[in-house]
Design brief:
The protein has a single domain, classed as 3-Layer(aba) Sandwich (Aminopeptidase), CATH 3.40.630.30. It is built from 5 helices and 9 strands; from the N terminus they run βααβββαββαβαββ. The chain has helices spanning 11-21, 30-39, 69-73, 101-115, 130-134; strands spanning 2-5, 44-49, 52-58, 61-62, 84-87, 89-92, 120-125, 139-143, 154-159. The chain is globular and about 40 Å long. One of its GO terms (cellular component) is ribosome.
Length: 160
Amino acid sequence: MRLRIATLTDLDAITALENICFPPNEAASRTTFIKRLQSFPDHFWVLEIDGVLVGFINGMVTNNETIKDEMFANANLHDDNGKWQSVFGLAVAPEWRRQGHAERLIRHLIEKAKAEERLGVTLTCKELLVPYYEKFGFADGGISTSAHGGEVWRDMRIRF
């Protein structure tokens, strides 16, 4: 098992996994991933097992305590000196789920954010996933202003 920073050579696998894990109205495009990998490469990690990409997590650094829709559309809003690490996507291939891989990815991101002396981590999720993120210390901030993909999201954040 190997957790590492993603590169453009991972683009096909990342895009394919995104389209398996998220419905079309929520999934990031190949072009979006290119922009993310170029704008915040040190905040995009992949998990490999025997050379196969089985999961990833990514998100820009920002001074926003919550995720705004324009952040999904504009990777240039990333601020290396920002106070908050965001999570835009956490995905694990269906055949690799329920083995702790998503937990490894989220814990890795949290530890990196702590090491970089961020104030915390922010993400949005559907109501069904609130208990999942609470087990890592995230608090439910209520319904998000984000309407990404036309969905209703919950603001979640963990403060260090």
